[in-house]
Write a structure and sequence with these properties.
about 260 residues, five-stranded parallel beta sheet
Length: about 260
């Protein structure tokens, strides 16, 4: 037991640069307290002391802000940073060396009595506010960005971001498109949304702007060709569209620099 406690304390120093000394970690890390109390409630649960296990779990939630069902299976060196608002369901399985940030939910999507919560393999990191839902598996080394909603399995070493969660493909052909630059910049984020975070709505608007500019260019070529043939076309006073009006924080870039926002 004491060996496990030492491992837990060391895991805090390994993952939180704000930790100064052992006494501070023991007394002021509610995520650590939640894990320790869970081990006791889990033993009670396995011994069929269900009410007592649930009661201890409830008391732990009051004290730490973390709700871990006593039936959940948790591996070694599990760390919950900041802790508040974390919910872990009954059939959740968490491997060794996993990290959860505040506001994470490992929840179910059905009322079936069987396996209905996620499985996290070793070395999985879940960013703040992320929701991992259903009997899915996040394979070894997977990372989930902040506020993502994940409902499908993720392969080893992958990074999942967005709503709904989608995997950043590490093998995709890298160019200079706006989306690729964004994914390279944000990758995994443990905390809150980046100003440059991938926004599906912004990407749709950017795609529409790209299409509009391409149509304008094509029409200009057609008008020029007709003019060369002696056919006059009435010119209309069309309003212009400035992409920078839609792309917050990108005013220093010209439209030409963003002609291939989406591919």
């Amino acid at each position: 037991m004491f060996e496990r406690i030492k491992e837990d304390i060391k895991s805090v120093f390994d993952r939180d640069p704000a930790a100064r000394n052992t006494w501070e970690v023991i007394t002021n890390y509610p995520g650590l307290h939640a894990v320790w109390w869970h081990r006791l409630s889990n033993r009670l649960w396995k011994s069929n002391w269900y009410w007592l296990a649930r009661t201890l779990s409830t008391l732990t939630r009051w004290l730490t802000g973390v709700e871990i069902h006593p039936g959940a299976t948790i591996g070694r060196r599990f760390f919950i940073d900041h802790a508040m608002g974390v919910v872990i369901g009954e059939t959740a399985v968490i491997g060794d060396d996993c990290t959860l940030y505040h506001g994470v939910t490992l929840g179910g999507t059905s009322w079936d009595s069987g396996k209905r919560h996620p499985t996290l393999e070793d070395n999985v990191v879940i960013g703040a506010g992320a929701k991992i839902l259903g009997p899915i598996t996040l394979a070894k080394g997977c990372r989930v960005g902040s506020n993502a909603v994940v409902t499908k399995d993720a392969p080893p070493g992958s990074t999942v971001i967005g709503i709904p969660g989608h995997i950043i493909d590490p093998n995709c052909k890298k160019g200079n498109t706006h989306r690729e630059r964004v994914e390279q910049l944000i990758g995994f984020e443990a905390y809150g949304e980046s100003e440059k975070c991938y926004d599906p709505v912004a990407q749709v608007i950017s795609s529409i702007l790209d299409h509009s500019r391409a149509v304008d260019n094509q029409l200009n070529l057609l008008i020029k060709a007709l003019s060369n043939k002696g056919i006059d076309i009435q010119e209309l006073d069309l309003p212009g569209i400035n992409a920078n009006d839609f792309l917050d924080g990108m005013s220093g870039q010209t439209i030409a620099e963003n002609d291939s926002s989406l591919q």
